[in-house]
């Protein structure tokens, strides 16, 4: 089995990639948790490619080729932009801070933690990033994000349902901005129905925490599903939040 999709190097196109992977997961009868991990890694890899291979708004196309070989799912991401090898060590400061978490790093870390093998090569005109997931290692994400804000005595409850991914993160930021600008002392985020989060979504939460800290308020995450909590744990973000 081998299928492919080609997108423009625009973040709004990433949803086409994730839907493509989800469709393949159904046709291949993959466990939903495995499909979700592959979607997460591909989303992060394509986002990194758009950012690093096409700086200053350069235009280009990105191809994703997916094949199943000997029980593995191989995902080849091909681009014609600048050469950038995500498998090389990235410069990191010794001290972890909110700024460090916001400047990249999250995406790369999620790729390495969700896939089993990663390889990169270039022929000078095209760059090839291969991500492999073994099927022996290891549920269906919502396609959209719904956010409800409820004001209560002394604070606000924000209920987040569905996918907090690259496409929806900007919308989420615009919805919660008025709450943050009002300096609400206590914010509770109900995550019971948050089924998917990418590095873009994590950055939204980190920005919220930073804003709340600056106004000496309190931010609490409640009802975080195990799969979502695992992503917080993998990236080291759990220590930044109060999670109940």
Low-confidence stretches: 137-142
Largest sheet: 5 strands, antiparallel
How would you write the strand order of the largest sheet? Answer: 1-2-3-5-4
Number of strand segments: 10
Distance N to C terminus = 43 Å
Could you say which overall geometry the principal axes of the C-alpha atoms support? globular
Residues in β-strands, percent: 25-35%
Order of secondary-structure elements: EHHEEHHEEEEHEHEHE
Counting DSSP H or I runs of 4 or more residues, the number of helices is 7
* Coarse structural class: alpha/beta
Mean pLDDT: 85
Helical coverage, percent range: 25-40%
Topology:
Layout: E1 2-8, H1 14-27, H2 32-53, E2 61-69, E3 72-79, H3 98-102, H4 106-114, E4 117-122, E5 127-134, E6 145-152, E7 155-164, H5 166-181, E8 186-197, H6 199-214, E9 218-222, H7 226-235, E10 242-243
Parallel strand pairs: 7-8, 8-9, 9-10
Antiparallel strand pairs: 1-2, 2-3, 3-5, 4-5, 6-7
């Amino acid at each position: 089995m081998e299928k492919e999709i080609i997108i423009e190097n625009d973040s709004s196109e990433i949803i086409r990639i994730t839907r493509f992977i989800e469709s393949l997961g159904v046709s291949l009868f993959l466990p939903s948790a495995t499909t979700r991990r592959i979607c997460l890694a591909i989303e992060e890899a394509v986002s990194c490619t758009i950012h690093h291979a096409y700086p200053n708004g350069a235009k280009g196309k990105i191809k994703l080729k997916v094949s199943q070989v000997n029980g593995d799912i191989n995902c080849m991401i091909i681009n014609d932009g600048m050469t950038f090898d995500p498998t090389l060590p990235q410069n990191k400061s010794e001290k972890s801070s909110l700024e460090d978490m916001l400047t990249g790093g999250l995406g790369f870390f999620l790729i390495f933690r969700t896939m089993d093998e990663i390889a990169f090569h270039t022929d000078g005109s095209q760059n090839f990033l291969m991500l492999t997931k073994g099927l022996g290692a290891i549920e269906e994400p919502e396609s959209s994000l719904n956010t409800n804000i409820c004001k209560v005595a002394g604070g606000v409850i924000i209920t987040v349902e569905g996918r907090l991914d690259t496409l929806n993160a900007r919308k989420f930021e615009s919805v919660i901005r008025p709450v943050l600008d009002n300096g609400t002392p206590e914010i509770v985020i109900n995550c019971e129905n948050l089924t998917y989060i990418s590095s873009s979504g994590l950055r939204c939460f980190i920005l919220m925490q930073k804003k709340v800290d600056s106004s000496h308020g309190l931010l609490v995450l409640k009802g975080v599903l195990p799969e979502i909590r695992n992503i917080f744990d993998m990236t080291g973000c759990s220590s930044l939040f109060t999670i109940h």
